[in-house]
Structure formats: structure tokens, C-alpha cells
Amino acid sequence: MEFANKEYLFLLLLLVPYVVWYFLYRKKTEPTMRMSDTFAYQYAPKSWKTRLIHLPMLLRTIAFTCIVVALARPQTHNSWGSKTVEGIDIMLSMDVSTSMLAEDLKPNRIEAAKSVAGEFISGRPSDNIGLTIFAGEAFTQCPMTTDHQSLLNLLHNVRTDIAARGLIQDGTAIGMGLANAVSRLKDSKAKSKVVILLTDGSNNSGDLSPLTSAQIAKSLGIRVYTIAVGTNGVAPYPMIVGGTTQYVNMRADVDTETLSQIAAQTDGNFYRATNTAELKNIYRDIDKLEKTKMDVKKFSKRYEAYQPFALAAVLALLLELLLKLTVFRRIP
User: Fold this and answer.
1) Distances 269 to 4, 195, 197, 237 between C-alpha atoms, Å
2) What gap in Å lies between CA 314 and CA 308, rounded to an integer?
3) d(CA 125, CA 145)
């Protein structure tokens, strides 16, 4: 902890003459009573009030000390910390088209995918991880970072209604989603570079085909792990009709052949996830990847830290005032 106004700390020297005055000269200012003999009081036990007679002075000293420290403006200091860790560079590419609301996975496909992705991110603290989302278009939700708390917050805010509200075009642009993720990894120096592509449909939008994006990934040494989400056959899909939610059966339209080709072409693996447990299989293969050493820098921001001292000063003054008006009240 540092102090912005260190000169105020010299005021603490005033406590020395105050304490000396209190114990040496205070008795001269106290009212006295003459008695012929004090023998009867020589062995009398001290009451708790007598034992706490100096408590108001102690509270006053604490209050003064806290006020001086608050005036000196205690602050945390800016600091850079660097360390070398072993990890890999990973881009998560997640389908957020409206079909991800199907409820064959609980509570639905998108929430199940987010939950497993969140566990995956939390379990790999040393990896550089980013997030791309796509429907009929693709964009980067979070660039690669080791600040996983920020990444998890952005992942938590992913919704499928961005296509429903017209913010991006609806559809399934697998090629664009993969290309966007690859573009974030192209300058990576890591030995292991991975894209985890999750979708529940087949490519029907975008300017790039999935296999063209896969060829680009292969040329850059990027492995692509593809996950086809959804059950075989039909899945319940919620639709709003007259202010109520009605369910219709939606056929699963996952292009497993293309996803398998993408994975095979880039030396990755293809997964068919019909439940949440199968989604977690991706951990095993990624844990086997060769890791590379990388330097990570962390920055801590300065902030004012006077509030606890100011609060302690106020409480000490209020307690001293309360004791003077009650327990240690004096009647002239």
C-alpha cells in the first residue's frame, strides 16, 4: 500500500505529547474529595468501569490515527507481473442461430453448449482462449485472452436472439464462423493452435465454404475440433403463438459429413453430441496436445483505499460519544 499524501502521516507525532499529557497531567484536572483515611478502600476490588476508564482516550486515539491515515490517501499501487506458463491457443466458434433453442439438450442446445464451454474455460487457466459466434454472419465476441473471467462474462451474455432481433442475419455460416476463428489464430506463435467449432446445422450462408476455411486452417497449422450438437431425428423447438409457447418437432439437419471432413483435413476430431456428457469428451483430446511456453503479463489497477479508515474513525468517535453519555457520564 502506498500513500498519495505521505506528509500527513507526520501528524501522528502529535499523539506522543497527547498521551504524555493524559497520563501525567490529567489527574490534576479531575475533581477530588478529601477523606480522613483510605484504608478501607485499599483492597477493594476494581469495578469494570474502573478498568475501562481509559477506553474513551483509546477510542479518541484510534479515531485520530484513522483520520490521519485517510488524509494521507492510502492507495494500491500499479504493478505489472509476468510469469511463464504452458498452454495452447484456442478459439471457440459457437453457433448462435435460432435453431440452437431446440430443447433436445437441457435446458436447450445453446445453454448446454455455454455451460460445457464455461467448464472447459475454467479448467484451463493457462490457455489463451477466445470466442467467435456465428449465425448467418460471424464476429468475434472475445479475442484470445488469459483473463478468463472476462471471457466467461462475455460467454454468459451470448444469446440466440441477436439473429431473431435482426442484429445479424439468421442462418448457419459455418465457413464464416471457422474463418473468423482462424483469423484470430493466424499470427499465434504457440505450438498448438485449436479451433473448437460447435454447430447444430449445415452451412447455408456466408461467402466461404466450410471446406475452404478448413484448408486455410490446415495451411496455418490449426487443428479444428468439430462438434455436431443435437439428437438424430426430431427435436422439440419452442415457438411463440398468441403470447404462449408452443412446441413443434424440428428435424435435425446437421451436416455431419462436412464436419467430419473439416476435422479430418486439419488433424482434429469430430464429435456427435446428443447430450451434455458427450460434449465434455473434447477435454480428453485437447489435454493431449503439445503445450508451448508463453509469457503472461498481469496488470493491477490503482484505487483509493481510504474508506475503511474513514469508517473506523467515525465508529470510534460515535462509540466514545456514546460511552461519555451513558457509562462514563459525569455529573458536576
Assistant:
1) 56, 11, 11, 28
2) 10
3) 10
List the grid coordinates of 21: 499529557
Alpha-carbon Rg for the chain in angstroms: 34
Contacts of 68 (CB under 8 A, 6+ apart): 8, 9, 11, 12
- pLDDT tens track for 34-62: 666 666 666 666 666 667 777 888 888 99
Whether 285 contacts 296, CB under 8 Å: no
The C-alpha cell at 277 is 456428457
Return the higher-pLDDT residue of 125 and 223.
223
Cα–Cα distance measured from residue 85 to residue 295, given in angstroms and rounded to the nearest whole number: 7
The residue type at 281:
N
Among the listed residues 50, 147, 24, 86, the one whose alpha carbon sits nearest the alpha carbon of residue 292: 86
For the entire predicted model, the pTM comes to 0.63
